[in-house]
Structures are given as structure tokens and as C-alpha cells.
Amino acid sequence: MKHRLSAEDLEMPDAKRHTSRLLQLQIEDFISERQLSSHEINESRRFALHLIDYISKLSQADNEHDHSAQENRKRLEGVETQGVLIYELTEELSVSDTSELSKKGIEFPLHLPFGRKLSDIRSSRGCQWISPERFLLLSDHLLGLTTKEDPALDVDIVIPLKYFGSRDFLNFAYQVKRAHYACHLASELHKCGYIVQFSSEQRDAYRPILVVSKHNSVLRLHFSPADGFAKPCRFRPQNNNLRSSFCLGASDTEPPTPYYSANILSDLVRRQLDRKFKKFLEEKPNFVKAIFMIRAWMQSRRFTKRPDGFSNALITAWLVYLYRGGLVAKSSATIDIIAAFFKSIGNALSVNWKEARLSLAKQIDESLFDQFNEQFNFVFVDYSGYLNLARALSVAAWDNIRDAAERSLEKLDDFNEFDSLFTVERPFHLSFDLYIKVLISKNFVVELLRPTHLKELISRCDDWSRIAVDRITTLMKRAWAGRAAIIDIDVQMGCDSDKTKFDPGRQTLRLADEDTISSDIPEKWDLSCKPVDLASRDLHLALGVRLLPGWESTVTRGPPAKTPEAVEFRAFWGEISELRKFPDNAICEAVVWGADANSPRVPFQICQHILSRHMKLKRECIEERSVFSKDILPPLTDRYERISRAFDKLSKTLRVVNELPLLITNIAPVSCFLRGTSPYPPPPSHCIIEGSSLKVVNQTALPLRSSSPHFLPTVEVHLTLEQSGKWGEDLEAIARLKTAFYNAMCKILNDKFLMRACPYDTHALVVVDDVIFRLLISYEKEVHIMRKLAAGRGGHLKDTIETRMKEREVVLQTSLAAHLQRFHEQFTGRVDVKNEKAKLIIFGWYAMTLMFSVSQQFASFAPACRLALKWLSSQMLSDFIEDIMVETIMASVFLRPFTSYQPRTPFMAFAHFLRLLSSHSWLLRPLLVDFNNEWNDSDIDAMQKDFVKMRPVLPAMVICIPEDRTGCRYNNFIFAFLSDNCFLFAAVQRRLPLHTIKNIVFRCLFVHRCKTDFNISFTSWYLMASIMLNIHSNWFVIPSFWHQQWCSTCDISDVPNCR
Predict the structure, then answer these.
(1) Distance separating alpha carbons of residues 460 and 259, to the nearest angstrom
(2) What secondary structure letter does DSSP report for 224?
(3) I want to staple 480 with a disulfide (CB 3.0 to 4.6 A). Which of 484, 522, 664, 884 is the partner?
(4) Nearest CA-CA partner of 641 in 597, 593, 673, 669
(5) DSSP state of 252
(6) What is the pLDDT of residue 532?
């Protein structure tokens, strides 16, 4: 049937309607690829029915023998019925008795808070197997929301009321008896040959569930009490259901226990909530697709995987809220529903959690809402009017979700951003600029936290990690105001607390071979494994900070003096606050950080001071984890600034040279030293060798021993002269003319400007402020002449290897100089372009022009390039990829950032470089670097098609830029000769970056009180040689044939150290 356009579609412009259809097709393909097939769904349902039937038979066996437990114990002792020991099922055991479970190798999956034991639990009834009242297949599987990544079918097992006592909702009696019920069922299923594991409900340690699998089918068994277990009003936010006498042996006060109450209430209302959601979604297929996509978006950013994030129920409830508010309709397209979700989340003014009073209940008491707002940061009440679906949501998680939704909304209409939105994983360790590790020991909780936060600990069931996270978030948002855009905290309570047995080096090597990095509580664990006891472990927090411009300022400015705000400022910052006069003559409170503090350490010093002041943490418990040492990233700013100043001085001098036959019209800084991207800038030197100070031996020019300096790299600069018709078309004559210009230029610089300049046949060397510049004259007509000679008489112009090499040397580098000068004018205003023809853009060197502009825009670009080049060299790959290609890939990191924010620290830029290098599919698509942001969807589609056609003749890595959209001329320039080395690099490019990322992340985020030594990441582990030679930096290294010739003409004792 032909699709009829809706009224909304008819009103759309053609381009937008076309894009909307393409996005809709992408969504359909995405869902079909990840959704379970009909065969898999039927297999899961058959397995669920089989398991339900098996459990029902257990119940029947129980009912047959329930009339006399004493007779059963005598008559059926040791007798099995269908693999079930009947007396074990029917005998009533004490709540604290786990001996039978221990005999079967099952560890009780629950640790009580406050150090309580199972013997402290009081219930009017013991634990006895009783037939489940009913089984319910939850709606996710029925609606098609189950994915191949998580194919489990959810089954809710309803426990009869007679299993519980009348007041089991108090003091963890319900949770313990629920866990006992799950353990008994797990025992029987395990004996029957099923694979059974424990898991937790929504990362709640007090709500264990079972994961049962067999033959690729997986079930999650949830447990809930039957209706009538307790009235929902018993779990109002202000009520107390966890007595202080149970927790700490004191009963002076009974604070509200909203989180404990929600723990029980979420089981009570599960069936009602599932039934309501199913009814809402049954006749709205577009809403189901939208939920599927939003869940994928959340999961790729770990918003639904973290314990303080969004739950699946909250996502569905939010869409119900949008539907009720008229923001979406039943007929709305899937992409419009997703856009409405992003808009409502991302717009800071769209939802005010305190005033909107979000609820699915038709009527709710205002006083009840006030109770919710008093106890929770965010409130979204369910249909019952008593359960807060947003109870777990933290301030840090909400800020990150809102920011991601706002950024995603901007990309939603872009067909090419689909994968970036819904498929690319965005882990915590690649999402922030700065990372700080905080250790909170369990002794700190006992000594300091419990006496001061007793009510909060009871309210949160002794979950002191959430209290610490909320407190740190509040403090650091205020302390980093104006420096940090987003803050997030990753809780890691699974780290090994036994420091004596912990080997960071061995753990690093193990981690590098794993596919995932995680130190959190496992999502599943075996029946024989003990659950993680959170109270017995230290708390490891990793603070991630996304920085704002000006984050490196060493002054924190406060309010004007003698104001109420100034008093608050001084109380917050303490004794380090002082009065300062600012350039605008205002006298304000301020905090001045240490003069020796460089920019990366200022946020760390702020964090260290605030947490030690307000949370009484020791300073050694707060560690900086994302700043490279001086051995890896030495401070080179002063040296590069000196080179830039010397270039400015040379440029001004050359522009006033008027004695040459042809004037200099353009000066192009080609060298990477002027962009600050080389790991090793040339050291200061005033010594150069004149062309006459040579000795020729066997056609090899050797410098005289008495005047030979150490080898020094030069700063290459290209010069363009005025146009003239007297150059001719004889290449040898042109070369002689260039030599004459070098001689004349050096004479003028030496005589008139008192500079140190030496001419050579092919270039001139000039020393300016101890910086050696290499001057080359570019004459682009040479390329045309060489092409004519290659074509022969009457033929078409022909490209050869020689012409391309000459084009690289002359035309492309001259063009690069013009573009660098143009970007100097645009970004720094230091150079004035006088020659309009110099603005011509030709092929690959255009990228180097833009490299300079990127280095001017982003302060972390140059240090990140130095890290990347140093890393490639350490992995023995520097010969396989040229520096300009590395800079281009790094430019892509900044121009098309992974997190929608340009990296502001070298650490994060380097990590994103490694991610791009390892994750990009170089074989299937090129890397598109759109410097001018001018490509549309049709341009990108055309480039992809051209790439597919030309793939057999293109190198292993292809980069497309605005002036070379095919990636042919630019990449042939990078790889002048296609060889196996290129493909060797392509073969190892994925493994090495992943290994390095994991090593850096592990040492940065997971190893506490261990030296943050990143040197291992800059050491080759993929050794292709039998011997490695480490050369000292103060030794002079020369090629072997030079060494032989040199030693034959001088005394061997005078030769410098050679290795």
C-alpha cells in the first residue's frame, strides 16, 4: 500500500521531509538489527512456560505432602520426588537459618546494613516454601523492547501473603524473606540442570533476583508480594519503616526512611505499573520504537547502567507525561517523539522538578508532593501516588543527561550523525577533560560520617556512598563555578581493599587483554559467590570535570567586600580568602592559588582544599590523575614562543629587503616547530657551517672536524618572489638563479642587518636569536615545466613521481605558506597578507595551513600532537605514518569532537586520538576532515561513493579534506610509495591504541595510592626487534658511513661519542 503523507508531512519542506524519511529508515533498520527475531522470542517464551510449569509442579508436590510435616520427615526422609527433596521444601526454617543453603553451596545474597546479622531479623513467620500465587510475563518482551544484547525475558513471581508476617515491611524482614524465597527456588532450579545466577533489581543490593538460562534462552525472575501485603500509604516519604533501634541500638529519633520504603513499594506496584504501561503502548507502535531508541541512546552513555541514572520505567513514564501534556500525539512519527523527549530533557526551562509536580496519578495530595520534594532531589510519582520513579536520580547524573539531550537534539536532523547518537559507546573515561581520584575509607564513615549524618544514613539504608557523592557534587559545583561545565562522579566500590596483595603492573597487563573495564559491583554473580559487602570496602570515587574557557585562571574572584555574599564566600573558602583589588578598581574577596601552580593543577588544588575543609578528608586521599609528567610532556611553551618571536623578527627583516632583483612577496612558515607540535624543538644554537667549510670524500660532503656542530633541525620557511618572465624554462638555469638569490640575500642580511646567514646551492641558513631558519625559494612554474618535459613534444601534461615530488616541494609548500599567513591574520593578527595570489589553495598542504589555525584556536592541540607523535615513535610506528597525517587526525578530534566539546587538556585530546585511531573503520570509509564546515549530506555521500570506487588504489588510511575530496592527491602525498608498511600499520592500529587507552584509564581511575606512571603507555609492547638500544640524549649520533669517512680523516680520539 502506498504511504499517504500526513498533514504535517505536507507542510514540511522537501529537503526536511526527505531527511525525515531517511532517519525513519535508519531507525527501522537499527531496531530490526537489535531486536530479537520471532524465533528467539518464541524460544524464550517456551522456556518461560516450561520453567513456570516446573515451578508449579514443585508447588503441587508441596501441597500433596503439606498435611503432615512430621510424617513427611519420617516417611520421605532421603526420598526424591521429581528431583525435589520434599521435606526441605515444606519444613519451616528460621529466618536466620542458612545452613541448608550452605550445604548446597549457595551463599545468601544479602548483606544487612549497619553490621546487622540475620539473627537480628524478627518475623512472626519463618521461611517455608509456598506455592507462588501467580506468574506474570512482564511487558518488555511482549512489546518487542528486548534486545539481542540483553535478551532476557522478565518474569514476576508473586509470593503469597501467608509467606510473610503482618509487619514484615519493618526492619528488613521483607528483604531477607524475599531473598530466602529466591535461594530456595535457585537451589531446585540448579539441581535440575539450569544455569542459575544471582543479580540485583535496578542495581539495588537489597533486592536480589535470579537469572536462569539454558540453551541460549535467558529468564530474569523477579519477586514481589501479593496484593494486600501492606497499604501503599504505609510507605509515604515521611514515614519511618526502619527503626533506629534496629540500625544503631538507639531509639531517640525516628527519621523518615523514603529510600527504604521505596525499596519495598517498587515490588508492590510493579504489576500495576507494568499493566498501565502495556495498555498505553499496545496501540502506539511509534512510541514503542521511540522507547527502544531512547533506551539505546541512554545505554550508549551509561545513563541507564549507572545506579543514579534513568530507569526504563522513568523513560516510559516521561513519554506518558509528554503525551498527556499534548507535546506528542498518537500519530506522531518516531523521530518527532524522540525530538520531543530530547527537547523536554535538554531545555533547562522546560521542566522544573519542584514546580512541575510530575505525576502519573490522576489526583495527588499537595502535602504529599511537599514530602517528596523534601526527601528527594527529583520527583516523578507513579500511578499509585506513593512511589517516586526518579528517586535514584542524582544531580550529577541529571546534569549530564540534560547536557547530552541538548547536544543530541542539535544532531538529530543530521542523517550522518545517527551512529554517533545511538550506537557509539561514550564511556566515563573518555567523556571529561580532567580526572581526580578520591578515596574515602570505611574508617572515615565510622569515625566522622555516622556521628554527623546519622539521619541521612538511616534514610538511605547506610548507603554512605550516595551521601558522599551528593555532598561532593554540591561542594565542587560551587567551588568550580566558572571553571567546570559538567561534573560527574564514578563510584568504584569493587576495588581490592587488600593493598598488600595488589599488583598494579600485573593488573594493568590483565586489563589490557580484556574487552571491558569495570570495577563496579558485578551485574551477576554465581550462587556460590558471596555478595559484595559495601560497608566493608573503601569508597573509590573518580571525579570527571568538563572544563570551561578560563579554567586555568590562578585567581578565584568573589563578591565585593563588606557584603553578605562576601561573608558566605569567606566562610566557604576559609582562611585562604583575602581582599584583592582588580583591574576594574573593584575590591573583592578572592582566592589566589600558588604561584608555582601551572594551569592543570589549579582545579586539583581547589578540589583538594574544599574536600579537606568541608569533608575532613586527608589531602593524600585526593589525587590528580590526568596530568602527564614532565618526562612525557615536558613544558616547551617558552622555547616555542622564542621560536615564534624569532620568526616574527625574521619576517619583518625580509620584508624590508629591497636590494634583490625581485622582491619577496610572501613568507610562509612551513615548519611544525612554528605550530609547536613537534615533541623535540630545536635547541638554541648560534653555530652553522658555511658551504666552503666542507671536505668531499668519495662524493660525500663532510663538515670539517674543527667546525662541526651537533646535528640541529632547522625551522623551514618558504619564500615567494615577484613574478618575472626572465626565469625561463630551463630547470638547471632556474636552480642557478635560485642559488644566486640565496647568495645575494645572505650578503644583504650579513652586511646590512648584521645577521648570521650562510648560502647554499639549494637553500640558505639564517640564525635569529639562536634559532636556525632554513629559507627556500618556491617557484611553482617548475612543476608545469617538469610535466611538459615528461609528456614529450606535442603530448598532454603528464604526472610522474618526480613531478609530484617537485609539486610537494615547491607548489604545495608555497601554497601552505600563503594559507598559514592568512590564518595568522585571521587568528593572531600578526601578519598582513599583501599578495592575493598567495591565497591559492592547492591539495594537501592546505591541511597544514589549517593545522596552524587549529593550533591557534585550541591550546591543547599542540601538546596533544606531541603526545601522539611520541606515542607512535615509542610503538615503532613513526616510519609508517607522517607527522602531517598525525596532525590531521588530531585536528579531526578537535573539529569533530567525540563528546561535542573540544578537549581542553592534552590528556583527553590524546585519549580521543587513540579512540579515533582504533575505532574508525579505515578500510570501509575515509576520515572526513571538514575544516571549513561546508559539506552537506550530498557532498558526504558523493565522497563515500568515490572512496568505494577508488579503494583498491588508495592507501590503508585515507583522509578527505575540502581541497581533496577524493583523498587521492593528499594521501598519495602522505604515502608517496604504497608499501606493505602502510598495511602493517593498519593491521596493528586497533590493538595498540586500545591497549594504551586501557592502561591509561586503569592507572588514572582505578589504582589508588599507586604512582600514576604513564611511561608504560609510551613503551613498546609490540616488539618487532630482538634488541632495543636506549640512546642517551647527550650522545652524538651520526650514520655509520659518515663515521667511517670521518675517522679516516681525523684522529679517532677526537670523534664524539657515537652509538
Answers:
(1) 6
(2) E
(3) 484
(4) 673
(5) S
(6) 80
Question: Is residue 649 in a domain?
Answer: no
Q: Does residue 220 form part of some domain?
A: yes
* CA–CA–CA angle 236, 237, 243 (5° rounding): 90
d(CA 836, CA 937): 32
* Inter-residue contact 813 to 884 (CB < 8 Å): no
Domain that holds residue 112: 38-268
Across the strands, what pairs with 212?
196, 219
Give the chain's domain count. 3
Distance CA 428, CA 306 (A): 11
The whole-angstrom separation of Cα 792 and Cα 555 is 70
DSSP state of 35: B
**Contact between 896 and 888 (Cβ < 8 Å):** no
Domain boundary among 252, 268, 284: 268
Q: Could you give the CA distance from residue 983 to residue 989 in angstroms, rounded to a whole number? A: 10
Q: In whole angstroms, give the CA distance from residue 955 to residue 975.
A: 7
Q: How many CB atoms lie within 10 A of CB 954?
A: 19
**Cell 551521601 maps to which residue?**
467
Domain end, chosen from 594, 624, 654, is at 624
95 within 8 A of 173, measured Cβ to Cβ: yes
Closest CA to 549 of 606, 593, 611, 599: 599
> What amino acid is encoded at 967 in this protein?
G
As a dihedral over the C-alpha atoms of residue 357, residue 361, residue 366, residue 371, rounded to 10 degrees, the angle is -80
- The alpha carbon of residue 375 and the mean position of all alpha carbons in its chain are separated, in whole angstroms, by 32
Which pLDDT score is estimated for 817? 38
Query: Hey, what's the cell of 748?
Result: 644583504
pLDDT of residue 700: 59
Q: Using the structure block, give the residue that is written with the C-alpha cell 680523516.
A: 1049
Is 356 inside a domain boundary?
no
| 216 in any annotated domain | yes
Instruction: Tell me the Ramachandran region of residue 562: left when phi exceeds 0, alpha when psi lies from -120 to 50, beta otherwise.
Output: left
Q: How would DSSP label each residue in 966-1030?
A: TSSHHHHHHSSS--HHHHHHHHHTTHHHHHHHHHHHIIIII--SS---GGGGGS-SS--SS---P
- Cβ-based neighbour number of residue 523 at 10 Å: 12
Q: Please, what are the averages of pLDDT over each run of 10 residues along the chain (1059 residues)?
A: 44 67 90 91 92 81 45 37 40 84 91 89 88 92 90 94 92 94 92 91 90 91 94 92 85 86 94 95 94 95 90 94 92 93 79 81 88 93 94 93 92 86 90 91 76 82 87 95 93 52 41 41 84 79 91 90 93 94 91 70 92 91 81 81 92 92 86 85 73 60 53 85 83 89 94 90 91 88 77 72 70 47 38 35 40 57 89 79 81 87 89 87 87 81 90 83 72 45 49 61 51 63 57 49 41 37
pTM of the full structure? 0.83
> For residue 977, what is its C-alpha cell?
610509495
Residue 647, exposed/middle/buried by CB under 10 A (0-12, 13-18, 19+)? Answer: buried
CB 625 within 8 A of CB 436: yes
